[in-house]
Amino acid sequence: MAYNPNQYGGYQQSPPPTQQQSYGSPHVGGGAPQNQYNQSASQQQQQGYGNYGAPPPPQQQQGYPPQNYGGPPPPPPKQQGQGPPPGADPQLWSWFAAVDTDHSGQLTVDELQRALVNGDWSPFNIETVRLMIGMFDTDNTGTIDFQEFAGLWKYIEDWKKCFQTFDADGSGSIDRNEMQNALRTFGYNLSDRFVSVLIQKFDKYGHGGGQPGKGDVTFDNFVQACVNVKTLTDSFRSFDTDNDGWIQINYEQFLELVIQQKA
């Protein structure tokens, strides 16, 4: 299996450095340098990929509907046996308690999905929700407690700002040109053909019944697409020991790469 970095730029280009931060339906802010996306191409090439996920986005654009990607705040939580942990954000705790419908102190995939909506009010893709819980489920329970939820929420908020930055027309979705701009900003100079394939894969309205879709991706699938590109690139790099953008692997190594990606 080979990949030519000289043709498409490859992973020798690099996005701004990242931080582990979060995102969701209620909202949490994340501090990010205001000029991160104003760097020149040469400056971007001198940096590494950073951490897992996309780089922290710039400051939120003014005038963008604040209710997008979360909907209105959930109703006040029912009375439970315990209050918020010491030092907890009261608003974030109220959101967590309202989503925790069984009052277990843990959020399941289904509970979290019900709390998250896109800008067009469609529910989050369940696979994106699983991906997010998997990233922040530090004790491997398959659920997230309040502290894990707080980290996930900040991650979602940073992704929301990132999404709004690249949604140039304010449509609430990312088209092919906007996706290509986002990937190039992250350091992935990929071909038009690949970006079209990525859009087709993650266009939630293009699956089933042979429908062509809308040719764009909603917020939840934008996150999933970008994280997949990042993790696949990292998997490729683990085999590219001389960092020349080319690898040669046998059948079992290929299976191992795919299985680890699905884990």
UniProtKB/TrEMBL annotation:
Compositionally biased region (Low complexity): 7-26, 33-53, 60-70
A single GO molecular function term of this UniProt record: calcium-dependent protein binding
Short name of any one Pfam family annotated for the protein: EF-hand_7
Domain EF-hand residue range list: 87-122, 154-189
Record carries keyword RNA-binding: no
Stretches the record annotates as Disordered: 1-92
Keyword Ligase: no
Bias-annotated ranges (Pro residues): 71-88
Gene3D superfamilies cross-referenced by the UniProt entry: EF-hand
Cell location: Cytoplasm
Protein origin, superkingdom: Eukaryota
Keywords for this protein: Calcium, Cytoplasm, Metal-binding, Repeat
This protein's GO CC annotations: cytoplasm
This protein's name: EF-hand domain-containing protein
Organism listed in the record: Absidia repens
Lineage of the organism: Eukaryota, Fungi, Fungi incertae sedis, Mucoromycota, Mucoromycotina
